[in-house]
Amino acid sequence: MDTALLNPAIQAFIDDNIGVNISKLALQKNPFPESNWTTVLSQIEAKTKAKNKLPTWFATKNIIYPSKISIEQTSSETTASYKASIVSGKSLIDLTGGFGVDDYYFAKKIEKVAHCEINPALSAIVQHNFKQLNIPNIICHSADSMDTLKALKTTWGWIYIDPSRRNDSKGKVFMLKDCLPNVPENLAFYFKNSNAILIKTAPLLDISAGLSELQHVKTIHIVAIENEVKELLWELHKDYCGTTEIKTANIVKDEIELFDFILNKNSKIPNYSSPQKYLYEPNSAIMKSGGFDEVGTFYNLNKIQKHSHLYTSDNFISFPGRTFEILHAIPYHKSEMKVYLEKKQANLTTRNFPDSVETIRKKWKIKDGGKNYCFFTTDSNNHKIVLICTKII
Description:
Layout: H1 8-16, H2 22-25, H3 37-53, H4 55-59, H5 68-73, H6 77-84, E1 91-94, H7 101-106, E2 112-116, H8 120-132, E3 138-141, H9 145-152, E4 158-161, E5 164-165, E6 179-180, H10 183-193, E7 196-201, H11 207-213, E8 217-225, E9 228-237, E10 245-252, E11 255-262, E12 278-282, H12 284-289, H13 292-298, E13 302-303, E14 311-313, E15 321-331, H14 334-340, E16 345-350, H15 357-364, E17 367-378, E18 384-391
Parallel strand pairs: 1-2, 1-4, 2-3, 4-7, 8-10, 16-17
Antiparallel strand pairs: 5-6, 7-9, 8-9, 10-11, 12-14, 12-15, 13-14, 15-18, 17-18
């Protein structure tokens, strides 16, 4: 860790240049000959990235940052706070500590947290930052996490793991066995040290693929921010053999859209109908979950077509996703397109439709934007239709 970065003049310079173009700044003469200019610039880049993602770190004095890439890859405070809501008890060990954002929030719920990081430089940075953040109940271990688990000889309330993909697995199907640490291979060993394991994976991991590699999965959390899925959280409990619950959470500003269901339970198939007064589009977390029948039946909505994953009703309801009022439901024919959409402005979405948004825009000269939202989809009779709507929520 470069302690010279804590020089008050350097810290002030970093703060004064948040958001400044680094390429232009790099052309200037280094005003701090005692420090590496590239390292100072790297701090500016990383802290700029942390401004919205890690506001607590950004607002705390004398924080030292790793590379900008490390900041991009770390959990946001928003998702870290959600993870902390899952765990409870007296102890947790994080086998893949990284920049320590998750552990900061775990430490608000757990009495003793262990942060394991194999990179000694990053471990030193994190240990320094926890002191600046006034978090005394996290102990940092700079070593291989498997060696640390063995050496500590402790039974932990929770084990937390955020495996990363190995460099040699690029281009392959995303499987947990292709990550470090190899969770499926080490699962039995982990359960010797804890009865509860929480695993974070990227949204790229297919749920069925994850279930095929893991055992004792009690709950899968799908976490989205502003309708973008950020991570999957796999909650494993020793010897658990029951059903798996899917919990979806879309965090929008200060609210959370929640929808839960039991995976592979024989749920009722929704009714199908032609478009009614209102149109509902599930949020991205629900779309990732695959709970298309479950969300339709739970909210007593009709589905427009089996594969469209769009829902409709005559009466307005509060729904976890986007809601629209349907102004016109037209067949996708030349005559109707000329009247309603050709050379006009609209926001376009395709669902279960053969043409892309780009193709439709070009063909009918439709400009992007405006108040109207148009869904190009297929109805229950397999006819191509266009739903012209205004957005409610």
